[in-house]
UniProtKB/TrEMBL annotation:
<dbReference type="GO" id="GO:0003824">
    <property type="term" value="F:catalytic activity"/>
</dbReference>
<dbReference type="GO" id="GO:0046872">
    <property type="term" value="F:metal ion binding"/>
</dbReference>
<keyword id="KW-0949">S-adenosyl-L-methionine</keyword>
<feature type="domain" description="Radical SAM core">
    <location>
        <begin position="44"/>
        <end position="254"/>
    </location>
</feature>
<keyword id="KW-0408">Iron</keyword>
<protein>
    <submittedName>
        <fullName>Radical SAM protein</fullName>
    </submittedName>
</protein>
<keyword id="KW-0479">Metal-binding</keyword>
<dbReference type="GO" id="GO:0051536">
    <property type="term" value="F:iron-sulfur cluster binding"/>
</dbReference>
<dbReference type="Pfam" id="PF04055">
    <property type="entry name" value="Radical_SAM"/>
</dbReference>
<dbReference type="InterPro" id="IPR007197">
    <property type="entry name" value="rSAM"/>
</dbReference>
<keyword id="KW-0411">Iron-sulfur</keyword>
<dbReference type="InterPro" id="IPR013785">
    <property type="entry name" value="Aldolase_TIM"/>
</dbReference>
<dbReference type="InterPro" id="IPR058240">
    <property type="entry name" value="rSAM_sf"/>
</dbReference>
Length: 396
């Protein structure tokens, strides 16, 4: 598998794209993780990467999405964006995941990519904005990897994302392949699509389309319309883990999860300080589904290091999670989580009553599987999870 993947990288990527992925994502990512571990040892809190939501606007209305897409449109200011990235650079953090809403609706997207050419950007997108012009600009810049959200084959995907979305995405993937970009697919595993998205057929489909990685998430019932019918049962999560390890040995594509360490133990990126989420208004939040913050980018004269490292709320969230689970407190302890947020007086930046939404969630299993942990059984993935920024895991 490893040699086949190396061959795909060598023949399927434009030279500047391959170089920047290796240097900015691989080499600098490893340095960022080492710096993070050093900070961790000294009780200094600053993550090696950030989720940055550029806007709350979107052209789709996906079932189970927690981002509010009606009411006032919000777009992150370029001053805030520059402050986030420059603060990160001072801490050897050069990797940023840009999301929304739909990040391609932010008018300064390409300006940011070009201005910070020494950083690497992952753009989580619905794939509806891949024009010849946009894709050619991404290839020229080389420091960007699109991550396209798709949740199964045509029927399952369009059930959540809208009729015709699957076909439009496939057109975009062909364009990305033709321009030899380093790109991936983001798939949310649900109770309805788990068997399909963890199949050989699903993985091979994207290899044939030129994808170099496939990033899996587990569905969380949050938002104004949470659609709990998409939730996974514990048995499905265990089976997903088993299939993930089997698929990793079989196919020449990186299969990334956001949930398990090299030892197969669950972890929460926010609880370990690996990554936080910043909303369109500059709110510094624990993770994308939790739109509650005490600090903003503009605080402390935009000194992000000071705002994060001295945040009683973010540090308190870490302790709150660690005292209860290695997994996801949104799924396992929603009512206690709502009380924690209230007690800290965190502001809701969702424009909804997101706190009441969390309070009404029925507790469920997350990826925390005590006594059923399944360690990584392939040395490549063990190394990546221990040493390199990889699926928000580098905990060796």
């Amino acid at each position: 598998m490893l040699f086949k993947y190396a061959y795909r990288m060598a023949t399927g990527l434009a030279p500047n794209v391959a170089f920047k992925a290796a240097y900015l994502y691989g080499f600098k990512g490893m340095k960022a993780i080492h710096a993070y571990k050093k900070r961790l040892a000294n009780d200094v809190l600053y993550p090696p990467f950030m989720f940055v939501a550029l806007t709350n606007t979107c052209n789709l209305r996906c079932q189970g999405c927690w981002v509010e897409k009606v009411g006032k449109a919000r777009h992150m200011s370029t001053d805030d964006l520059d402050a986030i990235i420059e603060s990160g650079k001072r801490q050897k953090a050069y990797y940023y995941t840009l999301l929304g809403g739909e990040p391609f609706l932010h008018k300064s997207l390409f300006d940011i990519l070009e201005r910070h050419s020494d950083c690497y950007f992952q753009i989580i997108t619905n794939g509806m904005f891949f024009t010849e012009e946009n894709v050619a600009r991404m290839r020229r810049l080389g420091n960007v990897t699109p991550l396209i959200s798709i949740d199964g084959m045509e029927e399952q995907n369009d059930l959540r994302r809208g009729e015709g979305v699957f076909a439009k995405i496939m057109e975009g993937l062909d364009l990305l392949k033709r321009h030899k970009l380093f790109y991936g697919l983001a798939t949310t595993a649900t109770g309805k699509n788990m068997d399909e998205v963890m199949s050989d057929e699903y993985v091979r489909m994207f290899i044939d389309r030129g994808a170099m990685y496939l990033w899996y998430y587990i569905y969380r019932p949050v938002g104004e319309e949470p659609h709990p019918e998409y939730c996974m049962q514990k048995e499905q999560i265990v089976e997903m883990r088993r299939r993930l390890l089997r698929l990793r040995r079989k196919h020449p594509i990186l299969l990334i999860d956001t949930y398990w360490t090299a030892e197969g133990e669950a972890f929460c990126p926010a609880a370990t300080g690996l990554g936080f989420h910043i909303g369109p208004e500059g709110s510094i939040e624990p993770c994308p589904p939790l739109s509650f913050a005490k600090e903003r980018v503009v605080d402390n004269d935009r000194d992000m290091f000071k705002s994060i490292n001295e945040s009683a709320y973010l540090r308190g969230f870490q302790d709150f999670v660690k005292d209860r689970t290695k997994g996801c407190v949104i799924l396992e302890h929603p009512q206690e989580l709502a009380s924690f947020i209230r007690d800290h007086g965190a502001k809701d930046y969702s424009t909804r009553d997101a706190l009441s939404e969390i309070d009404s969630i029925k507790p469920r299993h997350s990826h925390h599987l005590p006594d059923e942990e399944i360690p990584e059984d392939y040395w490549v993935y063990r190394f990546l999870k221990k040493q390199v920024f990889f699926g928000m895991g580098a905990l060796g």
